[in-house]
């Protein structure tokens, strides 16, 4: 009888130890957020370069298929095709160009998402006066990592901070 109790307790302890071993969180690899930050800043720099070269197709290649764009004064666009139409329309203005400053990137500890934020200056032709103007504002971009390790834009928000002023 004593042997059965001892064997039962030993089996119980072994089962508990096995379960405890199964529930331990897996060791996670620390994400190099500085590497992600540099990759995202490089992606935005390339996007700005392509926008300023008026290459709408190249600009939307930075997007995820279901990317959402939110611009002040305009309905949201969803998807690469809608973004391509909006971007191509902006590029009909020969003066259209963008510059960014005060860039910051916040990368999630998981390394799966990041938020890029910057101030922008957008040069364009005023639709009423036909004179060159500069619009200034804030730009937020939500990035997600892809299966190949690259970063793609999931959403972006462009919000002007004041009325466009003449150059």
Shape label: globular
Count of DSSP H/I helices: 4
Main β sheet profile: 7 strands, mixed
Percent strand equals 35-45%
Helix and strand content put the structural class at alpha+beta
- The radius of gyration is 25 Å
Mean pLDDT across the residues is 86
Query: Total number of β-strand segments?
Result: 7
Summarize the helix and strand pattern as letters. HHHEEHEEEEE
List the helices and strands and how they pair.
Elements: H1 2-23, H2 33-52, H3 56-60, E1 63-71, E2 77-78, H4 80-90, E3 97-107, E4 113-125, E5 132-145, E6 151-160, E7 165-166
Parallel strand pairs: 1-6
Antiparallel strand pairs: 1-2, 3-4, 4-5, 5-6, 5-7
Structure in words:
It is a single chain. The protein is of the alpha+beta class and 167 residues long. The chain has helices at 2-23, 33-52, 56-60, 80-90, and strands at residues 63-71, 77-78, 97-107, 113-125, 132-145, 151-160, 165-166. Strand 4 (113-125) and strand 5 (132-145) form a beta hairpin. Mean pLDDT is 86; it is low at 12-17 and 22-27.
Compact summary:
The protein is 35% helix and 37% strand.
List its traits.
167 residues, alpha+beta, seven-stranded mixed β-sheet, 4 helices, 7 strands
């Amino acid at each position: 009888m004593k042997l059965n109790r001892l064997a039962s307790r030993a089996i119980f302890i072994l089962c508990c130890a096995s379960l405890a071993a199964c529930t331990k969180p897996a060791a996670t690899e620390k994400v190099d957020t500085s590497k992600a930050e540099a990759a995202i800043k490089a992606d935005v720099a390339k996007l700005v370069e392509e926008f300023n070269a008026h290459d709408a197709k190249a600009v939307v290649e930075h997007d995820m298929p279901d990317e959402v764009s939110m611009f002040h004064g305009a309905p949201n666009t969803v998807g690469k095709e809608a973004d391509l139409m909006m971007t191509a329309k902006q590029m009909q203005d020969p003066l259209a160009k963008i510059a960014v400053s005060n860039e910051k990137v916040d990368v999630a500890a998981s390394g799966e998402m990041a938020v890029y934020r910057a101030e922008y200056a957008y040069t364009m032709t005023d639709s009423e006066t036909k004179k060159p103007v500069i619009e200034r504002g804030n730009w937020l971009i939500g990035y997600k990592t892809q299966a190949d390790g690259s970063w793609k834009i999931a959403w972006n928000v462009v919000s002007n901070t004041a009325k466009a002023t003449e150059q």
